[in-house]
């Protein structure tokens, strides 16, 4: 299937909609309890059970429309199935809460592995959007790897010390916001090593 483009608003809705939906549904159902087969499930578990098929459906639609999924989207889908499934099956919210930690450690580990081999694996994903020289990519990759590690540590601290409601808000807004702020903070590095500037 060949790659196709879709409207940016539709792509963003399919990527971010399930996460925002999880946040809204949790706030709505957090104080509810549901009994299935004699087992009581709180609102967080119920919303997780709904979230798994919703995010998989959104990714299936995105794949159908564009003909591709990024490695990050595939990894997220796999971990949502595994950790979300364990959360519902074992009636234990800790499994879903640890998911961002695992994702960030995997991504950071992949980038560090590339750096150990003197390669920027990040450039393989973003080089078309951010044309930079090799030195710039190595610096950005190192910083990105440490950012993922810091995000993993932050998630562990939050879910282990704060309420579930606080963690849901942190996961929905703080982690994506930190990623956005990280790339904004790298604007100087990107400009200094931009290949577009060299071509002018």
Automatic annotation (TrEMBL):
Domain of life: Bacteria
Keyword Transmembrane set for record: yes
Keyword set includes Oxidoreductase: no
Alphabetized InterPro entries for the sequence: YciB
Membrane-protein topology: Multi-pass membrane protein
Keyword terms: Cell inner membrane, Cell membrane, Membrane, Transmembrane, Transmembrane helix
Bilayer-crossing regions: 12-29, 41-62, 74-90, 96-116, 166-184
UniProt-annotated location(s): Cell inner membrane
Listed GO CC annotations: plasma membrane
One Pfam family here: IspA
UniProt cross-references to PANTHER family, sorted A to Z: INNER MEMBRANE-SPANNING PROTEIN YCIB, INTRACELLULAR SEPTATION PROTEIN A-RELATED
Function statement: Plays a role in cell envelope biogenesis, maintenance of cell envelope integrity and membrane homeostasis.
Assigned protein family: Belongs to the YciB family.
Protein name as catalogued: Inner membrane-spanning protein YciB
Organism: Jannaschia seohaensis
């Amino acid at each position: 299937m060949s790659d196709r483009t879709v409207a940016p608003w539709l792509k963003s809705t399919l990527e971010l909609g399930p996460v925002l939906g999880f946040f809204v549904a949790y706030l709505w159902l957090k104080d509810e309890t549901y009994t299935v087969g004699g087992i009581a499930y709180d609102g967080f578990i119920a919303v997780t059970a709904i979230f798994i098929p919703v995010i998989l459906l959104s990714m299936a639609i995105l794949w159908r429309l564009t003909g591709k999924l990024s490695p990050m989207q595939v990894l997220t889908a796999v971990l949502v199935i595994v950790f979300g499934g364990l959360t519902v099956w074992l009636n234990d919210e800790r499994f879903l809460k640890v998911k961002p930690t695992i994702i960030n450690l995997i991504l950071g580990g992949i980038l560090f592995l590339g750096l150990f081999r003197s390669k920027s694996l990040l450039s393989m994903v973003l080089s078309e959007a951010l044309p930079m020289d090799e030195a710039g990519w190595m610096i950005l990759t190192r910083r990105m790897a440490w950012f993922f590690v810091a995000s993993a540590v932050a998630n562990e601290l939050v879910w282990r010390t704060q309420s579930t409601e606080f963690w849901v808000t942190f996961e929905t807004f703080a982690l994506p916001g930190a990623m956005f702020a990280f790339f904004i903070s790298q604007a100087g590095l990107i400009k200094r090593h931009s290949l577009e500037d060299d071509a002018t």
